[in-house]
Design goal:
- The complex is a heterodimer.
- Chain A is mainly α.
- Chain A folds into 2 domains: 59 residues, no CATH class; 229 residues, MetI-like fold.
- Chain A is 71% helix and 0% strand.
- Chain A contains 12 helices and no strands.
- Chain A starts with a helix and ends in a 21-residue tail after the last helix.
- The relative contact order of chain A is 0.11.
- Chain B is α/β, with parallel strands linked by helices.
- In chain B, strand 9 and strand 10 form a beta hairpin.
- The chains are: A mainly alpha, B alpha/beta.
């Protein structure tokens, strides 16, 4: 409505009775601009941005032949990027559910442990956490083994596993706060209604509170997943073995080997971008589905009409 | 059902910090009785109701519902179970409906039977359909609460409470959040509940017409004390206490 009014009001810029020639150039441009639809302007902006990027692409003189040749090698890292991200986000969601319930509980152990967890994993760099889990745990495991405890072996993790664990723990800490806020956003009356029909705490959370919190939690969780897709590149610093290399590691390796680092990285960047675009699309669909029961679809009928049937 | 009163309250006190909301309430409610509780806002009438099913923990006193006797104390596991037992026997209807927005009307009514009572889904569904029919909303079974009017929401809420097959229904200002033209349909359902099902009811309301027609007894609460009680015919026509008279003069 507002926009239409502005567009419809284009004539008001021109004082009544003043012919076109008497307007300043600026005013004439404004009048002309108001006639162009927003979509057209948007398309022009995109075209401009792409042109600039295209010029840069030409000027940087990429070895296109090399890129075409090695795109497939880098592309094969996508399954591992997805594996790392999906496994880590599942771990993060589980930790976030437990963490948020613990942050909201009055149990001193749950509250204390979750408080420390969130503080530590939000307060230190992800890359440091990765090395602590990969190398630090391995060191403890090794020492335990020399002390005669064979199970110390279990702490010596594969680089991929350590990476997934670190990502999951780190994102779980951030998402604990997201989930806590989501749970707290559910109206207090919902908890009372659940309790009033005799639900236990667990039933209330599972059946009433969490299903409603999910609606609030999904959008930021989608953001976290998209961030995770890209942070999964950090796993490569743990030196993943050849058979388990994800996107970034493959790009880095092949780029350095053939002395084409930019070509390799720009290919990887394009693939990350494509991945996030696909997931954004699915996220939006999911959000629309979850808004069911909160949006009045179709016409809304007021009044009971059925009151007379009562009893 | 055990003999004697459904609800027996003795020496009920409730304080929120330094504020004493209930100052020693004694009350017994017989099976099938409809008790209307009224009074100024802040007189403690909602708190009294919420102490019956332990949405509020009393500060002192004894509350016995359907033979289950509870006193304030630590929420140990066995005590939590007793509280849950009490809640399952009290159907509660809230001023703000508090329907579960992510579920349809039918699912709202089925939730208690399925999750809390552990009934079969088919049995629960049959029960829910029947109850929605009884509150006149059979045709709204598959709607989400957002698509219902206030009056319809409150009738679904009543059906949800009834689905627990409670021994007593607690109504906490069930029509206060409704547009005037929607109040009648909710009161009609409540009246049917009292007259046709002989449901025991505690009703906090300012609907004096409903009280006159349906209530067996009225309680006037003032600053946490029962100032006056008696049958509506007497309370509404010749109240003894000056504070009751002032209040009634204001609402009638």
């Amino acid at each position: 409505m507002e926009v239409e009014k502005q567009i419809g009001g284009a004539g008001e810029i021109r004082p009544p009775g003043v012919p076109d020639e008497d307007l300043s150039r600026w005013q004439r441009a404004e009048v002309a601009s108001l006639r162009v639809p927003f979509r057209v302007k948007l398309a022009l902006v995109w075209l401009g941005v792409i042109t600039v990027l295209g010029i840069m692409f030409v000027l940087v003189r990429f070895d296109l032949g090399w890129m075409a040749e090695h795109a497939r090698f880098i592309f094969l890292g996508i399954p591992f990027t997805l594996l790392i991200s999906v496994a880590a986000i599942i771990l993060a969601v589980i930790l976030a559910v437990l963490g948020s319930l613990a942050r909201l509980s009055r149990n001193p152990i749950a509250f204390g442990v979750s408080g420390f967890y969130v503080s530590f994993f939000r307060g230190t760099p992800l890359i440091v956490q990765m090395f602590l889990i990969y190398a630090g745990l391995a060191q403890i495991g090794g020492n335990l083994r020399t002390m005669g405890y064979a199970w110390g072996e279990l702490l010596i993790l594969d680089s991929l596993l350590a990476g997934i664990l670190a990502l999951g723990l780190n994102y779980g800490a951030y998402m604990t706060e997201i989930f806590r806020a989501g749970i707290q956003s559910v109206a207090h009356g919902q908890a009372e209604a659940a309790q009033a029909i005799g639900m236990t705490y667990g039933q209330m959370m599972r059946r009433v509170i969490l299903p409603q919190a999910v609606r609030v939690i999904i959008p930021p969780t989608g953001n976290e997943f998209i961030a995770m897709l890209k942070d999964s590149a950090l796993v490569s610093f743990l030196g993943t073995v050849v058979s388990q290399m994800e996107l970034f590691r493959r790009a880095q390796l092949v780029g350095i080997a053939d002395f084409r680092p930019f070509e390799a990285l720009i290919l990887a960047a394009g693939m990350y971008w494509a991945l996030t675009t696909v997931f954004t699309f699915f996220q939006q669909r999911l959000e629309r589905r979850l808004s069911r029961g909160y949006v009045r679809a179709g016409s809304f009928q007021l009044g009971g009409g059925a009151a007379g049937h009562a009893g | 059902m055990p003999d004697g009163p459904v609800v027996r309250i003795k020496g009920l006190h409730k304080s929120f910090g330094p504020l004493e909301v209930l100052k020693g309430i004694d009350l017994e409610i017989e099976p099938g009785e409809v008790v209307v509780i009224f009074g100024r806002s802040g007189s403690g009438k909602s708190t009294l109701l919420r102490c019956v099913n332990w949405l509020e923990e009393p500060s002192a006193g004894v509350v016995e519902v359907d033979g289950i006797r509870l006193e304030p104390g630590q929420r140990t596991r066995s005590r939590r179970e007793h509280i849950r037992e009490v809640r399952m026997r009290c159907g509660m209807v809230f001023q703000e409906f508090n329907l579960f927005p992510h579920l349809t009307a039918l699912e709202n009514v089925m939730e208690g039977p399925v999750t809390v009572r552990g009934l079969e889904r088919t049995t629960s569904r049959r029960l829910a359909v029947e109850l929605l029919g009884r509150v006149g909303l059979a045709d709204k079974a598959d709607e989400h609460p957002i698509r219902l009017s206030g009056g319809q929401k409150q009738r679904v809420a009543i059906a949800r409470a009834l689905a627990m097959e409670p021994t007593i229904m607690l109504f906490d200002e069930p029509t206060s959040a409704l547009d005037p033209e929607l109040i009648g349909e909710v009161l009609a359902v409540m009246k049917a509940l009292a007259t046709e099902m002989q449901m025991t009811m505690m009703v906090v309301t300012h609907e004096m017409g409903f009280a006159r027609e349906v209530a067996n007894r009225m309680l006037f609460l003032h600053e946490g004390e029962v100032v006056e009680e008696g049958p509506p015919s007497r309370i509404l026509t010749e109240p003894q206490d000056a504070r009751t008279r002032t209040f009634l003069a204001a609402v009638l």
